[in-house]
Design a protein that fits this description.
The strands form six sheets. The protein has a five-stranded antiparallel β-sheet with strand order 1-13-12-15-16, with no helix packed on it. A five-stranded mixed β-sheet has the order 3-6-5-8-9, with no helix packed on it. A five-stranded mixed β-sheet has the order 21-20-23-18-26, with no helix packed on it. It folds into three domains: 146 residues, Sandwich (Immunoglobulin-like); 100 residues, Carboxypeptidase-like, regulatory domain (Immunoglobulin-like, Sandwich), CATH 2.60.40.1120; 93 residues. It is an all-beta fold and 376 residues long. The relative contact order is 0.15. The chain has no helices and 26 strands.
Length: 376
């Protein structure tokens, strides 16, 4: 079958190096190949728009990872898929020397369904994603400006789609910086970040409300002297949520801060997150030897009122984390993933028809602990 050819060149801004967040996406990099191979007549290419470049850098610990989310988890693409199984083939090269980029990461966020991610090596990757899917593709490589584009995956029976990308070096002194301070003005060392790509019209919406679609990425970063630089961003419009966390990755009793901003590329965008005091809810559940199970949680102020939507971070005996909205895994080390405004709260645990309500003891160091039992 005939394949359509096209080359995508991204506008370059000379740049330096970049340090990455340690995150679920990983920190891609690998050995350059020689001259790129011309595509065969049976490949089709999809053109990409030019993009201005930008620089951003994040100081991080190599081993930190964003907790997986069972209800909306990324699906890890199988390694070394058979070429015939991939509806999309990705070629990623550097615009500066036109050599393949040694190692890079990609992530596809479909309009419906779960995100899929993987890594490419020696400038190539086979994207084993659902045929006919529509969504957004993110491609990242260390020291390069990331690329984001809308993508329509070929339907069954159609030829594979070949995307040729040329990534540019990030520009020096460009990017989004984030200063993190507590209520006393002291610097915060660690933060969990969620970043969404949004439409320009969404900039005017309430920044205290998170977008409903999946984040573009989730990272945990180490802030040197309370300031960090976000990973490289393509020009566009973004929503950002930041939650201060401790060395174990659990939320500190400081309410999350949210921002919406435009990034044009080649510029500095300084943001300042001055956290307000909050409270973290902790569920202490005795291990009764039974198999861990998911339990629905309803959070309310003791003074009354409607249920408060709460995300929970559950850490099992194996050390693995999961985050679920109004759902926890018990028994486990469970805490609210984001600090709530100060106040006294009740929590109701429900499993099937069995429900129990608990109140906490005195709040200590901003943490309210609930001694609970598994509804059985």
């Amino acid at each position: 079958m005939a394949r359509i050819h096209g080359i995508v060149v991204l506008v370059a801004i000379a740049g330096g190096t970049a340090l990455w967040f340690a995150a679920a996406e990983g920190d891609p990099i690998a050995p350059p190949l020689a001259e790129p191979v011309e595509p065969t007549p049976q490949s089709s290419r999809q053109g990409l728009p030019d993009a201005a470049s930008a620089r951003s850098r994040v100081d991080s610990k190599e081993s930190q990872e964003e907790p997986t989310i069972p209800s909306d988890a990324d699906v890890i693409a199988p390694p070394d898929p058979a070429p015939t199984a991939a509806p999309v083939e990705l070629s990623v090269r550097s615009l500066a020397d036109r050599l393949p980029i040694e190692r890079f990461a990609w992530r596809f966020l479909p309009d419906q369904g779960q995100a899929t991610k993987g890594e490419g090596k020696a400038g190539m990757a086979a994207l084993t994603i659902a045929r006919g899917a529509r969504g957004r593709l993110l491609v990242e490589a260390e020291g390069k400006q990331p690329h984001v584009q809308d993508l329509i995956v070929p339907t069954a029976g159609g030829p594979p789609l070949l995307l040729d990308l040329f990534l540019v070096d990030v520009a020096q002194s460009a990017g989004v910086t984030l200063q993190l301070v507590d209520p006393r003005g002291d610097p915060i060392e660690r933060a969990r970040l969620d970043c969404w790509s949004i439409e320009a019209t969404a900039l005017a919406q309430d920044s205290n409300v998170d977008p409903t679609h999946a984040p573009l990425w989730k990272r945990v970063g180490l802030a040197t002297a309370g300031t960090l630089t976000l990973p490289e961003l393509a020009p566009g419009h973004y929503a950002l949520r930041t939650q201060a966390v401790d060395a174990d990755g659990f939320a500190l009793p400081l309410q999350p801060r949210r921002f919406r901003f435009a990034f044009l590329g080649g510029e500095q965008v300084p943001l300042r997150a001055a956290f307000l005091q909050g409270v973290v809810l902790k569920l202490q559940c005795q291990d009764d030897g039974a198999t861990p199970a998911a339990v629905d949680v309803t959070t309310r102020l003791l003074a009354g009122g409607d249920a408060i939507a709460t995300s929970w971070q559950s850490r099992g005996a194996d050390g693995r984390d999961s985050i679920g909205g109004d759902v926890v895994m018990l028994p486990a080390d469970v805490r609210s993933a984001f600090a709530l405004p100060p106040g006294a709260y009740s929590v109701e645990l429900r499993r099937g028809a069995v429900a129990q309500t608990f109140v906490s003891g005195p709040t200590q160091d901003g943490t309210a602990t609930y001694v609970v039992s598994m509804p059985r």
